[in-house]
């Protein structure tokens, strides 16, 4: 808006945007200060649970809420594995991936995902096996995880197995 005080013009003309998918976060503002009527400055929040996507195709605009995937990563004895990377990538095509890390309880939440099917993988470089959902190590045998607009797909859990290593010397006989 041209009437906003200097530094507050955060808008962009849709004609400046190329076709594509854009992630938008909902921003809520508190009451305006007297010197800036109509512009709330003292309370601004950026809440990713209210994220939405805008898809632009020519003059057509489509808006929808982001979805998310959550779950837990444990070992075979149900102990949490903190610091494990969990990623979700589009299932049938290359492109967007969301990613997060497990907390101390082994829980994760991958937010801001577009609706569709995802291939979800958990891996930890501290001697744990990589795993795709639903309990497979084979990329092609992964079960698609559906994400719905505005919904968290829950209980996408993983049980990782501690991997081993082999060491020794290799020599050639003369």
Beta content comes to 35-45%
What general outline do the C-alpha atoms trace? elongated
Largest sheet: 5 strands, antiparallel
Radius of gyration of CA atoms, rounded to a whole number? 22 Å
**What class would the helix/strand composition place it in?**
mainly beta
Structure annotation, total helices:
0
Mean pLDDT: 79
Helix content estimate: under 10%
The unreliable regions are 4-9, 27-49
The N- to C-terminal Cα distance equals: 82 Å
Describe the protein's architecture and organization.
The chain has 174 residues and is an all-beta fold. It is 0% helix and 42% strand. The strands form three sheets. Strands 5, 6, 8, 9 and 10 form a five-stranded antiparallel β-sheet that branches. Strands 4, 7, 11 and 12 form a four-stranded mixed β-sheet that branches. The radius of gyration is 22 Å and the shape is elongated. Mean pLDDT is 79; it is low at 4-9 and 27-49.
Write out key terms for the chains shown:
174 residues, mainly beta, 4-stranded mixed sheet, 12 strands, elongated
Question: In summary, what is this structure?
Answer:
This protein is 0% helix and 42% strand. It has 174 residues and is mostly beta strands. The strands form three sheets. Strands 5, 6, 8, 9 and 10 form a five-stranded antiparallel β-sheet that branches. Strands 4, 7, 11 and 12 form a four-stranded mixed β-sheet that branches. A three-stranded antiparallel β-sheet has the order 1-2-3, with no helix packed on it.
């Amino acid at each position: 808006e041209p009437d906003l005080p200097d530094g507050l013009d955060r808008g962009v003309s849709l004609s400046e945007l190329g076709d594509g998918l854009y992630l938008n976060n909902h921003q809520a503002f508190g009451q305006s200060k007297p010197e800036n009527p109509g512009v709330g400055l003292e309370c601004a929040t950026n809440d990713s649970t209210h994220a939405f996507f805008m898809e632009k195709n020519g003059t057509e605009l489509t808006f929808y809420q982001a979805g998310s995937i959550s779950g837990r990563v444990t070992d075979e004895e149900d102990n949490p594995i903190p610091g494990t990377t969990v990623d979700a990538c589009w299932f049938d095509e290359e492109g967007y991936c969301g990613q997060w890390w497990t907390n101390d309880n082994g829980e994760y939440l991958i937010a801001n995902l577009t609706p569709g099917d995802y291939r979800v993988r958990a891996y930890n470089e501290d001697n744990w096996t990589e795993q795709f959902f639903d309990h497979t190590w084979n990329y092609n045998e992964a079960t698609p995880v559906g994400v719905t607009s505005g919904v968290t797909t829950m209980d996408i859990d993983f049980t990782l197995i501690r991997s081993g290593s082999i060491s020794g010397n290799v020599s050639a006989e003369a």
